[in-house]
Amino acid sequence: MHKKLPIGIFDSGFGGLSVAKSIHNLLPIENLIYVADSAFTPYGDLPENEIVKRSILITEFLVRKKNSKAIVVACNTATAFSINELRKKFNIPIIGMEPAVKPALKVSLNNRVGVLATSGTSKSTKLSALLENHLGKARFYVQPCPGLVNAIEKGIFDDVKLFKLVEKYLENFKKNDVDTIVLGCTHFIYIKPLIQKIMGSSISIIETGEAVARQLQSKLVEFNLKEYISMSTGSTKIILTGDRKKNVTHVIDQFLLGSNIEFRVEQSWG
Questions:
Q1: How many CA atoms lie within 13 A of 263 on its CB side?
Q2: Every domain of the chain and the residues it spans
Q3: Which end of the chain is more exposed for a tag (fewer CB within 10 A), N or C?
Q4: Does the annotation count 75 as an active-site position?
Q5: Contact 23/214 with Cβ under 8 angstroms?
Q6: Catalytic residue among 33, 74, 75, 199, which?
Q7: Does the annotation mark 145 as catalytic?
Q8: What tens-digit pLDDT sequence spans the chain (270 residues)?
Q9: Among 32, 162, 166, 185, the one annotated catalytic
Q10: Is the pTM of this model over 0.70?
Q11: By CB neighbour count within 10 A (0-12 exposed, 13-18 middle, 19+ buried), where does 51 fall?
Q12: What CATH architecture is 101-206?
C-alpha cells in the first residue's frame, strides 16, 4: 500500500472534525478524507444494527472508492457498536474512540467523574465494561444527552437554547460535586467553554482527539504507511451524505476554527 494514500475519517456529522484537527496538527502532510454522515446524524439515536450498517457502508466507500490506507472512526457511538466488525472485515489499521476514563482518574481530586455521552454510547456494553474496569477507583456519573448533537451540528456555539440544554445535562454533575468531566462524544469538545462557564473554571474536561491522533501515528509507523516526505501540506476533502442543498461551508468553518486546515466540500454521497 502506498504511503501517499489518504486517511479516511468518519462521524455521524461534523463533530469528528475535532479529531481531524488533531490528526492534521500531528500529521500535517497526510491527506485526509472526512465523511460526515449528516443524513443519519446523530448515531446515538439509531438502533445498533443501523449504526453497524452505516459504519460498514462508509468504511467500504473510504477503502474501496477512496483507497484509504487507514480509517479513523471519529465517533464514540460508532466505535462502541461497530469497531470489532470493521476490524474483521477490513485489513487496514482502524482506530476508534473511547471515553478517556483512565486519564480522567489521573486528574480527578475527589474521584467523582462525569461522562457526557450520546444515548447510544451511554447504553453500550463497551462503556459499561470500561467503567466496570475502574470500579472502586471512582464514582462515575453517566449523563445521556439526547438532542445535544443536533444542537451542536448547527455550528452556533453561543446559542441561548444550546446553553440551556447543556445546563440541564450538567445538573446531576453539579449536584454530585463532579470535578472531572469526560467528553464521550466528539461533538462535545465544541461546548467546552459552556461547560466551564456552568461548572466553574476549576472543572477538568477530558477529551480524546489528541490521543487518537497519536494512536493513528503509531499504527501508520507500525504498518509502514506514514508519509515522511512532502513539499506541501496534505489536502482535506469533506464529503456529506444525503441531500444537502444548503451551502454548509460556513458551518464547517466554525468546526475548524483555530486550525489551518484548507478543505474542499464534495457534495454529496450516499
A1: 28
A2: 7-97+209-269, 101-206
A3: N
A4: yes
A5: no
A6: 75
A7: no
A8: 678 899 999 999 999 999 999 999 999 999 999 999 999 999 999 999 999 999 999 999 999 999 999 999 999 999 999 999 999 999 999 999 999 999 999 999 999 999 999 999 999 999 999 999 998 899 999 999 999 999 999 999 989 999 999 999 999 999 999 999 999 999 999 999 999 999 999 999 999 999 999 999 999 999 999 988 777 889 999 999 976 656 788 889 999 988 889 888 886 766
A9: 185
A10: yes
A11: buried
A12: 3-Layer(aba) Sandwich (3.40)
DSSP-derived secondary structure letter, 46: S
> What fold, for 7-97+209-269?
Rossmann fold (3.40.50)
Strands of 70-73's sheet in order across: 94-95, 70-73, 7-11, 32-36, 236-241, 263-269
R_g of the chain, CA atoms, integer Å:
18
Degrees, nearest 5: CA angle 97-98-103 = 125
Distance set, CA 239 to CA 33, 35, 247 (Å): 8, 5, 13
